[in-house]
């Protein structure tokens, strides 16, 4: 049997999610061995897998590059020394396999010779039986040699993947990701949605110190933080300064909730101020390289332009790019903060950030379908949650409903369509209801219920889903009551209030 594959590596090879493989295993279609699968069984279950290109990989990467509003991912080769080490490791594995095959071949030949000797020493009946067995063994060896000429394409593809990317597992949380290009372990983890503990990300504070349990890493960046000789012997390294050479297991803390994210005060610069429509503005802030904003998807931060001009807004970007933060600002005549953003804020200005705040975050361990319902400006925190879910590559069905008061309140429809076009498990439904969702009156409640009933009709398995609602308090509260009345457990309903 070929070398067994981890579920993460197997999923990448055939272009599906870990969740899809786990479903196949649960249903008995794909045999597993202690959380691994064989290339032969994988190819049997996915015989139509394309081996000529990496279309699925490219598709997901395109979404991350274009839709997340973050810098383009480095698709370059690893550092030359890392690449050389990986090729050397792979060559060693090939040499070991060749040596093992040679030993098996020699053993089989000795067995055949022994059978010949035994046949000459026994009576005619036993001799005939041994000769038959020897002939059968010879035929089996010849057939195996013929099969060697058509190797499993997944094995060949896996060999390339092992050179291009190292598989990293975090203990004890169980998170997994691939480290590619020139990324450090910390950068690769953050891009994959893993909320590791860190501080400066520049080798000074030591908060990203972790222990390498198995595998090989390489220091690629200088750091001033001193790791004691004892800790070095125990395998401790800084994740912001090291990259994975081989597949590695690392013992490192991962944030399990908002209580694990420290309160921060940061001075950020305005990178751009861009109109999203007549009544919404995108404010793109960039933090210093050595002082980034740690947050969980769905959380908010307070932006302070001066002591008297500030506002608390949801972060509308993914924590996988913690240096570039997006905020959606609605035009509100007479609101001091809004007026300043629209009339005076410009590239290069300094904005003080405080946060993060809020407990409207993703329940990462759930493997249920995800339904996101944004009411007007509620799209901002949901955008962060959705991008985080994509970074995790859970494979869960995601359906985004954006219910807007007017067409102008549907200020970023193209991003939802882009997600839907690129991802098989993503659905996008924009709805314009023609009434002010922030101040509903009694007769309009029935219209809202009619809209929400459409969500229920779309999902017969609604009670098996997680629902995330975000928007003005009035409409968010009404929607929460509606879904609870449908029998949805409160533990599967998450509500974020904006405005």
Principal-axis shape:
globular
CATH topology of the largest domain: Rossmann fold
Pairing-aware structural class of the strands and helices? alpha/beta
Tell me the radius of gyration: 28 Å
Helicity, as a percent range: 25-40%
- Runs with pLDDT <50, length 5+? 51-57, 66-75
DSSP E strands, number: 20
N-end to C-end Cα span: 59 Å
Describe the model:
The protein starts with a strand and ends with a strand. With 499 residues, the chain is an alpha/beta fold. Strand 19, helix 14 and strand 20 form a beta-alpha-beta unit. The longest helix has 41 residues, at 80-120. The chain folds into five domains: 5-49, no CATH class; 80-159; 160-257, Ubiquitin-like (UB roll) (Roll); 259-357, Elongation Factor Tu (Ef-tu), domain 3; 370-498, Nucleotide-binding domain of ferredoxin-NADP reductase (FNR) module (Rossmann fold), CATH 3.40.50. The chain has a six-stranded antiparallel β-sheet, with helices on one face. Helices cover 38% and strands 23% of the residues. Residues 51-57 and 66-75 have low confidence and may be disordered. The protein has 14 helices and 20 strands.
Question: What is the gist of this entry?
Answer:
This protein is an alpha/beta fold.
What descriptive keywords fit this protein?
single chain, alpha/beta, Ubiquitin-like (UB roll), 5 domains, 6-stranded antiparallel sheet, 5-stranded mixed sheet
């Amino acid at each position: 049997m070929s070398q067994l594959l981890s579920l993460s590596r197997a999923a990448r090879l055939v272009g599906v999610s870990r969740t899809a493989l786990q479903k196949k295993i649960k249903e008995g279609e794909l045999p597993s061995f202690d959380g691994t699968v064989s290339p032969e069984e994988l190819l049997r279950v996915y015989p139509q897998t394309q081996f000529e290109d990496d279309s699925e990989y490219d598709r997901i990467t395109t979404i991350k590059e274009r839709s997340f509003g973050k810098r383009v991912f480095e698709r370059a080769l690893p550092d030359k020394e890392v690449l050389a080490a990986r090729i050397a490791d792979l060559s060693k594995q090939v040499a070991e396999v060749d040596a093992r095959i040679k030993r098996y071949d020699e053993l089989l030949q000795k067995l055949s010779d022994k059978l010949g000797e035994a046949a000459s020493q026994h009576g005619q009946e036993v001799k005939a039986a041994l000769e038959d067995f020897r002939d059968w063994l010879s035929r089996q060896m010849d057939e195996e040699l013929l099969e060697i000429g058509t190797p499993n394409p997944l094995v060949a593809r896996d060999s390339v993947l092992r050179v291009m990317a190292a598989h990293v597992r975090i203990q004890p949380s169980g998170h997994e990701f691939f480290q590619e290009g020139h990324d450090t372990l910390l950068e690769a983890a953050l891009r994959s949605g893993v909320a590791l503990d860190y501080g400066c990300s520049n080798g000074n504070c030591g908060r990203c110190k972790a222990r390498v349990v198995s595998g090989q890493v390489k220091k690629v960046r200088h750091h001033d933080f001193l790791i004691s000789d004892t800790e070095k012997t125990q395998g401790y390294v800084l994740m912001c300064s090291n990259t994975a050479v081989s597949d590695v297991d690392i013992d490192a803390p991962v944030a399990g909730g908002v209580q694990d994210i420290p309160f921060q005060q940061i001075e950020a610069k305005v990178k751009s101020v861009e109109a999203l429509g007549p009544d919404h503005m995108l404010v793109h802030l960039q933090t210093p390289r050595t002082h980034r904003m740690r947050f969980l998807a769905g959380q908010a931060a307070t932006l302070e332009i001066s002591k008297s001009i500030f506002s608390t807004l949801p972060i509308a970007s993914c924590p996988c790019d913690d240096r570039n933060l997006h905020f959606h600002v609605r035009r509100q005549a007479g609101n001091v903060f809004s007026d300043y953003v629209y009339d005076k804020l410009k590239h290069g200005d300094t904005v003080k950030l405080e946060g993060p705040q809020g407990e409207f975050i993703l329940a990462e361990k759930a493997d249920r379908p995800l339904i996101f319902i944004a009411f007007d400006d509620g799209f901002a925190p949901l955008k962060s949650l959705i991008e985080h879910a994509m970074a995790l590559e859970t494979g869960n069905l995601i359906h985004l409903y954006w219910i807007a008061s007017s067409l102008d309140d549907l200020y970023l429809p193209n991003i939802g369509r882009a997600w839907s076009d690129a991802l098989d498990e993503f659905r996008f439904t924009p709805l314009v209801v023609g009434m002010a969702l922030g101040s509903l009156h009694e007769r309009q409640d029935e219209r809202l219920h009619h809209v929400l009933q459409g969500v229920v009709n779309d999902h017969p398995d609604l009670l098996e889903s997680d629902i995330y609602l975000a928007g003005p308090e009035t409409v968010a509260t009404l929607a929460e009551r509606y879904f609870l009345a449908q029998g949805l457990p409160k533990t599967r309903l998450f509500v974020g209030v904006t405005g």
